[in-house]
């Protein structure tokens, strides 16, 4: 490892991608142990037709937490952890593009998980709604316990973490590739991570939007999910627009890893690498358009269902193409069946069965039986546990010598593989015989014919669970007692092992293996500059957790949390003004087609994409409930169009001032910058003051209150989210003004002004869409 | 259940499932077989020559196109079959020929409302041989009205009416059959026990039963 010894301070403050990768990996393994224990409880409960181990409420909370933890706090974070460690290494970047944000992603992830687990200890317990949190069971009428609100907020906090990290990964891969790492030569794993993060960017804002609406429902009395016009269908649409891509978010990194492992241990290049990348892209693109297959039984239109049945079948073509590429790589290979190779082959076995059962469900006729049953549970455990976990374990073994410089015990690894593989099939194959057994039931006394299959599954669980635990034990044992490993014990040819980014040595067999070993060793031991340690990411994340807990349980605590966050952000700005942090140098080599755009700008553009998706989701929800409502109050009756228009002008003028400020500094005028910024700030503040101080009180006085139906629900929620964005913009301006007054902007160096200018323009455009939709129609 | 006594929806389902399974299993066996064969046969042994790394010049366009074509044809062929069966399930026979029953799911039971205002709880009696149209809704959270023996189900959603229709087969000996009705959507702590029965009886017996019920709130539990 890069650092010798253990120090709490280092782990709390590190921004190094390898450290953060390790933190992600270790934390996600902690979560699988928690989530796996919950699963064992479920299986033991179901070993016999009726069992008194878990009472119904506890049982439902157990399956809910199990699902949430495994998918969101274990599977995808483990992929992110491996990506954190190895994507920069594969592309020859010194670090991620934004190391401090990278640390913040991790800490937000960790503390969101802590919040989620803590819901179990609240009065009434956590959510008992299933990981899909279906409406209206998720509303306070049917799930009054505060644990549900906190779980929703923990989920939203995770969405923020994921969004930040996907911006970081995409920017890094676009901008920080070393010389020689062209798109053509980008390693398969990095490709899979790029696609995963693109999906995250599109999938997580909608769920964040849904969770915002759920929270306002539960806390402020809006009626999005308790009304008929919104309700079950609105939730299901938003959830599955996120949920389906999420399953590919879980699967793609595993497929990328399998490609790496197969190539290394078959000693062959990946069969049809270009094709592989095309298929990966096709799966990514199509997976945004299949979500309705989770809603085949909701009674939505026949044609809609048929269309989504076809897209679902269509996605299986490139998906199975990926699998074939992997299998065909073996054809002329010389195969070494090491532990990681066995896991990769096992993962392929599972993805074939899981994919085919998925296709079955894609046929609506068949789904009439499968939906809501253990067949579906069987399908997705084959892909999620089989493909994803086996793929990720393959990665842990494969990269183990690279991370630890030690070797694990190969023999134990192989034995545990066979036990896991067999245990897995005993556990999940019986589910395909339970296509009539409903999911999420805690007893089946009325259907004793299900008993043999359930008992078999439980026996499988008692084999597979411990085998997985021992697998982690084997890795820990290898770390503590293992023999030293060579730098490239597998003779792998990918860049993270060879450090050879231009591919020069690949033409000749076995060239310069020794010198390559030196390179990677030296790189491992290079110390990281002091200036890259910071307490701020962890502080902000703790603050966020305290804020959310307080928000749900006890308001004064929320204020405390908010204080911590603000103080930390101010400190962050101060550090920046003083240039305290060493900025990771930008690459070095390949960044086509973004050669002339700074990484900050790329980052902000990607961020704005996620913002567009967020507002798009909120607006879609608004338009949806509005179109479905038989009556809707006329705009002119509830809103004061004069105030609205005035405010529009104020915000537009503020944008103008911002543009003037930007032009001024481009031509070097610090004075022009200052006055422009102050103008923009003043006008922005005026906008908020009018909105919150004049307009809202007037409307509320007229009886237009947030809990008064869908019209005020959507108005106050969307306007509130927009106002929050205005507030963030104003905070940013405060920073710019402070920096401008200390004279730190010049014609050459004023990136942050450019970035805020972009953001401010975006906030303006959103207003220009909201305004007519609320005030004019 | 004897073979001739399967409801039409289940017969269709079984046929389509079997067809899909044959194709799916053959495809799976082929790919898994190849994988295992190569993994074992090409295993590294002393003296086995390593194929040159650079050996793969040609882009595998032909394989890719062949594979895509075959799987597209198979999948979309099956999709046509699925479409036809799905159309059958989607559009019930005319109301004049059918019995329409309003189903309301709630935490944690089903109530059934007949055209003559008879209402029953957790027990739905129907005549065999006649199309039955269920008009399904929920009065609280989302549930699912599932008839596993008929291989069909539909969500019960507050504020929405979803249609599901079936025909119960006539038994060879004209006997009465009891099928299970279950909720397939997690709906709270009573989800497990949200079970009702569907009792399919010969039409004459059914009419007798229906007429014997007073149309006022008659909430029979078990009989
Ligand atoms: C060819 C590929 C695939 C196809 C055609 C497919 C199709 C489907 C369909 C139609 C459903 C909905 C079934 C229902 O609820 O009635 C479903 C559910 C699901 N699939 Fe897949 N799937 C595929 C691959 C995957 C992969 C790779 C994963 C994850 C790694 C995955 C995870 C899931 C999950 C988690 C659910 C259930 C969610 C829930 O209801 O809780 N699927 N799949
Ligand atoms: Cu899906
Ligand atoms: Cu129910």
CATH C-level name of the largest domain in chain B? Mainly Beta
Radius of gyration of chain B: 26 Å
Low-confidence stretches of chain A: 505-530
Low-confidence stretches of chain B: none
Mean pLDDT of chain A: 92
Cross-sheet strand order for the largest sheet of chain B: 3-2-1-5-8
The number of E-state strands of chain A comes to 0
Share of β-strand residues of chain A? under 5%
What gross morphology of chain B would you assign? elongated
Order of helices and strands of chain B: HHEEEEEEEEEEH
List of distinct ligands in this structure: protoporphyrin IX containing FE, copper (II) ion
Largest protein interface? A-B, 82 and 78 residues
Q: What labels describe this entry?
A:
heterodimer, A: 777 residues, mainly alpha, Cytochrome C Oxidase, Chain A, Four Helix Bundle (Hemerythrin (Met), subunit A), 2 domains, 0% strand, globular, B: 223 residues, alpha+beta, Immunoglobulin-like, 5-stranded mixed beta sheet, 3-stranded mixed beta sheet, binds protoporphyrin IX containing FE, binds copper (II) ion
Tell me what you see in this structure:
The complex is a heterodimer of chains A (777) and B (223). Chain A is mainly α and 777 residues long. Chain A has 24 helices and no strands. Chain A has two domains: 17-525, Cytochrome c oxidase-like, subunit I domain (Cytochrome C Oxidase, Chain A, Up-down Bundle), CATH 1.20.210.10; 634-777, Cytochrome c oxidase, subunit III, four-helix bundle (Four Helix Bundle (Hemerythrin (Met), subunit A), Up-down Bundle), CATH 1.20.120.80. Chain A is globular and about 70 Å long. Chain B is of the alpha+beta class. Chain B has two domains: 8-43 and 55-90; 97-212, Sandwich (Immunoglobulin-like), CATH 2.60.40. In chain B, strands 3-2-1-5-8 form a five-stranded mixed β-sheet, with no helix packed on it. In chain B, a hairpin with a 5-residue loop joins strand 2 (109-113) and strand 3. In chain B, helix 1 packs antiparallel against helix 2. Chain B is elongated. Chain B starts with 7 loop residues before the first helix and ends in an 11-residue tail after the last helix. Classes of the chains: A mainly alpha (777), B alpha+beta (223). The structure holds protoporphyrin IX containing FE and copper (II) ion (2 copies). Residues 244, 247, 290, 293-294 of chain A line the site of one copper (II) ion (CU).
């Amino acid at each position: 490892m890069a650092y010798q010894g253990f120090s709490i301070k280092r782990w709390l403050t590190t921004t190094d991608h390898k450290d953060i990768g390790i933190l992600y990996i270790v934390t996600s393994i902690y979560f699988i142990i928690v989530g796996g224990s919950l699963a064992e409880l479920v299986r033991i409960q179901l070993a016999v037709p009726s069992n008194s181990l878990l009472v119904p409420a506890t049982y439902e909370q157990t399956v809910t937490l199990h699902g949430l933890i495994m998918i969101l706090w274990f599977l995808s974070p483990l992929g992110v952890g491996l990506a954190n460690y190895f994507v920069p290494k594969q592309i020859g970047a010194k670090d991620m593009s934004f190391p401090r944000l990278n640390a913040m992603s991790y800490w937000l992830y960790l503390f969101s998980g802590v919040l989620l687990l803590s819901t179990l200890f609240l009065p009434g317990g956590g959510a008992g709604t299933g990981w899909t949190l279906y409406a209206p069971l998720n509303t306070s009428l049917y799930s009054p316990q505060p644990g549900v609100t906190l779980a929703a907020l923990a989920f939203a906090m995770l969405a923020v973490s994921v969004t930040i990290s996907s911006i970081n990964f995409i920017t890094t891969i676009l901008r920080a590739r070393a010389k020689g790492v062209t798109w053509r030569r980008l390693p398969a794993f990095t490709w899979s991570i790029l696609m995963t993060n693109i999906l995250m960017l599109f999938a997580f804002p909608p769920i964040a939007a849904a969770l915002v609406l759920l929270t306002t429902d539960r806390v402020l009395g809006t009626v999005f999910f308790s009304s008929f016009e919104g309700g079950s269908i609105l939730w299901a649409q938003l959830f599955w627009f996120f949920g389906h891509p999420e399953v590919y978010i879980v699967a793609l990194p595993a497929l990328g890893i399998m490609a790496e492992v197969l190539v290394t241990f078959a000693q062959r290049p990946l069969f049809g690498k270009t094709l592989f990348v095309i298929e990966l892209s096709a799966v990514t693109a199509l997976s945004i358009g299949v979500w309705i297959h989770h809603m085949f039984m909701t009674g939505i239109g026949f044609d809609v269902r048929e269309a989504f049945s076809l897209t679902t079948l269509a996605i299986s073509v490139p998906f199975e193409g990926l699998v074939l590429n992997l299998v065909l790589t073996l054809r002329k290979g010389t195969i070494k069946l090491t532990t990681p190779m066995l896991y990769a082959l096992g993962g392929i076995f599972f993805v074939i069965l899981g994919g085919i059962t998925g296709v079955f469900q894609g046929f609506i006729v068949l789904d009439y039986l499968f939906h809501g049953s253990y067949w579906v549970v069987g399908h997705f455990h084959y892909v999620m546990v089989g493909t994803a976990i086996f793929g990720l374990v393959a990665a842990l073994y494969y990269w183990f010598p690279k991370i630890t410089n030690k070797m694990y015990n190969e023999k134990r690894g192989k034995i545990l593989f066979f036990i896991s593989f067999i245990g897995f099939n005993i556990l999940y194959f019986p589910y395909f015989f339970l296509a009539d057994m409903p999911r999420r039931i805690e007893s089946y006394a009325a259907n004793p014919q299900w008993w043999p299959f359930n008992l078999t599954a439980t026996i499988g669980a008692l084999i597979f669970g411990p085998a997985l635990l021992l697998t982690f034990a084997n890795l820990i044992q290898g770390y503590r007692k293992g023999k030293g490993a060579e730098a490239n014990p597998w003779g792998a040819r990918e860049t993270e092992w060879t450090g050879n980014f231009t591919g020069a040595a690949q033409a000749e067999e076995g060239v310069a293996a020794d010198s390559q070993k030196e390179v990677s060793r030296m790189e491992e031991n290079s110390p990281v500059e002091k200036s890259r340690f910071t307490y701020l990411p962890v502080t902000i994340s703790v603050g966020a957790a305290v804020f959310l807990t307080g928000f749900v349980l006890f308001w004064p605590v929320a204020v405390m949390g908010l204080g911590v966050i603000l103080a930390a952000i101010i400190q962050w700005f101060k550090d920046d003004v003083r240039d305290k942090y060493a900025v990771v140098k930008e690459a070095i080599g390949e960044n086509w087609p973004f050669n002339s755009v700074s990484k900050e700008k790329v980052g902000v553009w990607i961020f704005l994409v996620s913002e567009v998706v967020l507002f798009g989701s909120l607006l879609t929800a608004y338009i949806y409930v509005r179109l479905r409502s038989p009556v809707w109050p006329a705009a002119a009756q509830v809103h004061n169009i004069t105030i609205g228009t005035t405010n529009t002008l104020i915000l537009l003028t503020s944008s103008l001032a911002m543009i003037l400020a930007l032009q001024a500094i481009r031509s070097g005028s610090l004075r022009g910058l200052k006055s422009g910024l102050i103008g923009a700030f003043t006008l922005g503040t005026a906008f908020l003051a009018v909105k919150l101080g004049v307009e809202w009180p007037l409307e509320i006085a007229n009886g237009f209150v947030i809990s008064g139906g869908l019209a005020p629900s959507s108005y106050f929620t969307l306007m509130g989210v927009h106002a929050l964005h205005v507030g963030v913009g104003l905070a940013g301006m405060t920073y710019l003004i402070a920096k401008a007054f200390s004279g730190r902007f010049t014609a050459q160096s004023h990136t942050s002004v450019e970035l805020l200018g972009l953001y401010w323009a975006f906030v303006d455009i959103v207003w220009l869409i909201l305004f007519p939709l609320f005030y004019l129609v | 259940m004897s073979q001739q006594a399967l409801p039409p929806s289940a017969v269709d389902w079984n046929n389509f499932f079997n067809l899909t399974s044959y194709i799916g299993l053959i495809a799976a066996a082929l790919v898994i077989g190849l994988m295992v064969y190569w993994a074992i046969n090409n295993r590294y042994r002393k003296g086995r020559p390593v194929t040159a790394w650079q050996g793969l010049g040609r882009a595998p366009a032909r394989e890719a196109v062949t594979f895509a074509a075959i799987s597209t044809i198979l999948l979309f062929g099956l999709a046509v079959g699925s479409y036809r069966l799905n159309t059958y399930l989607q559009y019930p026979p005319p109301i004049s020929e059918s019995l329409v029953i309003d189903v309301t799911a709630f935490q944690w039971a089903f109530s059934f409302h007949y055209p003559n205002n008879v209402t029953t709880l957790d027990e739905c009696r129907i005549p065999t041989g006649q199309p039955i149209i269920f008009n399904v809704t929920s009065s609280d959270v989302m549930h699912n009205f599932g008839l596993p023996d008929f291989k069909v189900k539909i969500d019960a959603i507050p504020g929405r009416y979803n249609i599901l229709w079936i025909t119960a087969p006539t038994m060879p000996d004209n006997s009465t059959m009891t099928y299970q009705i279950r909720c397939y959507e997690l709906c709270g702590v009573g989800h497990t026990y949200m079970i009702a029965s569907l009792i399919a009886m010969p039409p004459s017996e059914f009419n007798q039963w229906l007429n014997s019920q007073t149309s006022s709130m008659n909430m029979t539990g078990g009989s």
